User: Fold these one by one.
Assistant:
Number 1:
Amino acid sequence: TTPSLLILPGDGIGPEVMAEVRRIIDWFGARRGLTFDITEDLVGGAAYDAHGVPLADATMARAQQADAVLLGAVGGPQYDTLDFSLKPERGLLRLRKEMDLFANLRPAQCFDALADFSSLKRDVVAGLDIMIVRELTSGVYFGQPRGIVEEGGQRVGINTQRYTEAEIDRVARAAFELARKRNGKVCSMEKANVMESGILWRDVVQAVHDADYPDIDLSHMYADAGGMQLCRWPKQFDVILTDNLFGDLLSDVAAMLTGSLGMLPSASLGAPMENGRPKAMYEPVHGSAPDIAGQGKANPCACVLSFAMALRYSFDQGAEASRLEKAVEKVLAEGVRTVDLMQSEGESPTSTQGMGDAILAALDAS
Ligand code: NAI
Ligand code: MG
């Protein structure tokens, strides 16, 4: 049966970058026989304008049914004064929560042509392609007890790092499954030297590996040392598995290894559905960029690369995902640049659509 894809363009530059992805999806249909049963719907401010809520129940139900969700971006200054529960971001949070997307995948991929954007030396990052898997629904951001309490005449701020075996088990499996679609290598990061949750994390990850993924090359590293190694020699890693807090920090560090926000895709995965595919939502890391919205300036690559991730991780089309990533790489190597990728005054930028045209031409030539 034809796999289903729910497309939620959202607000600001979301619809602009998604329009280019739609053309690319059409290319794969026409030229590679890859067709999807596509539904498009509203999220964020666009949903609020139409329905008075940032995510309608019907849209939520469609997301639960879809084989994958592809989202643009949400938000905008015109929604800043809305009630907290009606803000565009709540639409995104509802999707993540109700689909129970516990594994956040953040690739740090450095195309050769953009290596000079990195905060590190070219040799350290050129050709880098690693993936951080961050646990997203538990840990210290959610653990109880939490709060600010009075104690002995002063205030005390409390958060609790708390992980159950089941929570570690499921995110570990997500990382190992991913590793099988990549290079069969996982490095798990925690602080087992000073944290009980770290001891349990290491124990459960190792047990899941030994029982069901002995083919994967698994190593463990303390998260602080991991941060250091990420900046020193990031190419030693392939998949990095870590918790919510460390993943938040490490994925932001990894993002800076590669440069522009306009290039960074992401995915959030949940439990496997009946057809074996994980619940999944793919989205660029960037937001709705109101400062450039409506001007045809947005870089569509982050959203295009998010679709490539969907091809690889939801639809088992790793070769086609690589075809698309190589097309993006070729276009960058040819010097095609949206404004966010300009390095000097002399360069002339291409538009959102111009970047889409160039990627399609590169696909034609592939
Ligand atoms: P942003 O990511 O929208 O923009 C930050 C800067 O990067 C801006 O100067 C923007 O022009 C530039 N930029 C971002 N994406 C780009 C692209 N594809 N091509 C070229 N330049 C790009 O973050 P900001 O400004 O903090 O937030 C703007 C709105 O987006 C807010 O309403 C915020 O709440 C929302 N937001 C939504 C997210 C989501 O939908 N996942 C994530 C982050 C922010
Ligand atoms: Mg963060």
Number 2:
Amino acid sequence: ADEGYKLWLEYNKIADRPAAAVYKQQLKYMIFPAESDQLKAAKAELIKGLEGMLSMHPADTKSITGGQTIIIGTTQSLKGLAVIVPDSIGNQGYLIKTALINQKKCILITAKTDVGVLYGVFNFLKLLQTRQPINKLNIADRPRIMYRVLDHWDNLNRTVERGYAGSSIWNWHRLPGIIDQRYIDYARANASVGINGSVINNVNADALILSPQYLTKIQALANVFRVYGIKLYLSVKFSSPVELGHLKTADPLNDDVRKWWADKIDEIYRYIPDFGGFLVKANSEGQPGPQTYGRTHADGANMLADALAPHHGIVMWRAFVYDNNVPDDRSKQAYNEFKPFDGKFKDNVIIQVKNGPIDFQPREPFHPLFGAMPNTALMMEFQLTQEYLGFSTHLVYEAPLFAETLQSDTYTAGKGSTVSRILQGSFNKKLITGMAGVANIGTDLNWCGHPFAQANWYAFGRMAWNPDQSSSAIAGDWLKMTFTNDAGFVSSIKKVMLQSRENTVNYMTPLGLHHIMGVSTHYGPGPWVDNAGRPDWNATYYHKADSAGIGFNRTGTGSNALSQYAQPVQLHWENLQTCPDEYLLWFHHLSWTYKMRSGRSLWDELVYHYYMGADSVKQMGLIWDKMQGKIDVERFNQVQQLMKVQLTEATTWRDACVLYFQAFSKMPVGAGYPKPE
Ligand code: GCU
């Protein structure tokens, strides 16, 4: 069985006969001339979807039969039909509407470009997959973000850094001759949610990726991606001119180095004429970068940008930086290194910033760079792979995490300056915009390890398209498309999904705690870690628990990381009256007996959250058990087993953290709580 392989493109048969009959009636005929590869792919997808859901294949026609015809294409491909596409939907948007053409009622899917049509077709299929009526359609949609990119942390030996779903899907040994069906299905899945870029290799990059041997293989992948509107990008190692080009330096201001990159980039474009550009991790975690040669991030990024510009390529330059001079507070470093260069980057450079200032923790406040660089293009980096969220074992639907960051108000241009609006370029129309998700994809039959981890890939795409979409609506669509339209299943499991991230925060890092996981694997609890190799890898550096209390003081009396935020945010979080419990120990060091809003002491509150977190996993399991029979046996069983493991691990997290912190608080665990197991 292949349960899970098809992702949200299951195209399950519509069991409700009358509903299916209504759909079929309206889709009897199609006018869908498809000459280009992208239109051909769109047409093949439409047919695949309709065959799956309705066991039908609309008949190709040239004339419209009122009420029974679907017309699909661009103004050019539909020439002769007088189809008008408004400029407001842009080059990647689409219209799906009930239209009158030649006085006859029909369904029209149209766009300015072939890729817009492809997006329109996927979204039309979604209407059927989620059982929406199609007799009065009027949808105009367009992406709010330009670069919607998956970052694969895939190594050339096919291991995946922080990957928990098997090996890399890129089979270098068999490329370029063998085009695995997976590449095509991967591209279909991405296009279905509007993802239009893929960085195929790890940010901890190997210079070999730029060798001709690899470029031939990469070209074969790009050829597959292109059909689905996806551009291919590469992570590059800053010292490639030395390692691959045998130069003595990789100094970005050195003429030979500049020439080496320019030539290399010309070469890449000979293989891939629509190559997207580079992603660069520089001067971070031991990676080389411009600072290695006494230059700045701007020098490094701009040098590559100059070489890419003639080809319309971009540089995604990461702001995830920290070095060997461990500061008093690692959370401040990216801001300190980048803020001075606001406005200094070339137009085709975009700074890629993680959602929070540390590292993809279960909960972090938004990164202070958002809003701090009004004259610089900034893109979001979310992590889909669950490095700090229980790998592919724990059910954690990440959309609420994404939404929490996206809807955070930075106040940098007054109230309403949300991260979402900054990412959309609302405050500076000249800037390019983007969002990246660190992929959770591997060779596992179901792609992501946990059947529900697929929802994070899906939700990322949806939010990159429109960052203001609701987590709940996305979860509902995903459940219906992936499993079933059974209303009982969808409503119960949607609640489970929406609650799941908070559950995990509760059993791992409640009340603003962070970075207290196991050393290097980042799996399981490790609040005791105090010898991880460098201070800012230690848990103790972050929680600072002692007999007096717990938490990281980032106010003016501490590291003053708060000063990196706009004043209203600063004041809000600095003031204990207004700082939300969620961020309390991120910004404050408080005594164990500190009185919380709930009336409980800080210690009791902490214990309460740990217990609530573990208990919620138990509740989730009970709800899942009731779903037996509503979906296929295979995925039902798989999720049930995963939930049992998750419960064991949540309990371990709870007990380990409560017992560890209790050694400092010396306070009892309340009588109402079960004893640690
Ligand atoms: C985390 C992760 C690393 C990764 C790094 C990055 O630190 O543990 O494996 O390389 O992030 O984002 O560059």
